[in-house]
Amino acid sequence: MAADMLANTRVGFIGAGQMAEAIARGLDKAGVVPANKMCASDVNVGRMKVFESLGTSVCSSNTKLAETSNVLILAVKPQVAEKVVTDMKPSLSKDHLLVSIAAGIPISKLQDWAGEARIVRVMPNVACMVGETAAGMSLGKTATPADSDLVTTMFESVGKIHVVDEKLLNAVTGVSGSGPAYIFMAIEALADGGVAAGLTRDVAMSLAAQTVGCSCLSSP
After folding, report:
1. pTM of full prediction above 0.85
2. Residue 178 pLDDT > 80, yes or no?
C-alpha cells in the first residue's frame, strides 16, 4: 500500500456501532489510519461519545461526514441503509469510496443509492470485535485496484480479508459469517462433557475455549 494513499485517507463512519468501533480501534492501533483522521456520525449520542473517547472527531450529519472524509464505511442496520445513503447522494462523488458492511445489500443497490461514489462491499464477522475477523469483499464496477489494496490494508488491521466475486459472498457468510455460532456450540458441547465428567462449569468452559483457540492457531 503506497504511503501517500494512506496519508491522504480520511475515514468516515456512517453509524458508530460496535463493529464500526472495532474497525476504528484496529485502524488506529495498527497505524493504518490514526484516530485524528477518522470521523463518525450516529443518531445515538452515547455511541458518538465512545468515538470521541477514541480520539476521533464526530460529525453532526452524514453530509458533513462526506465533506470531511474520502473513505466512508457504511455501518448502519440494513433496513435503514437505503434512506441513509440516498440522503447523502447529493454529497457523494467519484472521489468517495463507499465501503459497505451492511449485510445483504448488493452492490447494484448501493450504486443506485450512492450515485458516482465507488463501491466496495465487505462481509466481516463478529470476530472483528476482537481484531480477528474473517472477511470477504467484492468490488463495484468503478472500484479500482488501488481501492482494493486500500480496503485490504484497512481490514487486515482487524483480521483477514479475501477478494471474491459478489456471487460468492453468500458462501463467505455461510463459512465465516455463521461459522462462529457453530464454534460456540462446539465449545459449549465440550464443556458439557467436562461437567458430566465432574469438572466445574467455569473450568470446563475455560479448557474447551482454550483447546479450540489453540487448535485453530496450530492448524495449517
Report:
1. yes
2. yes
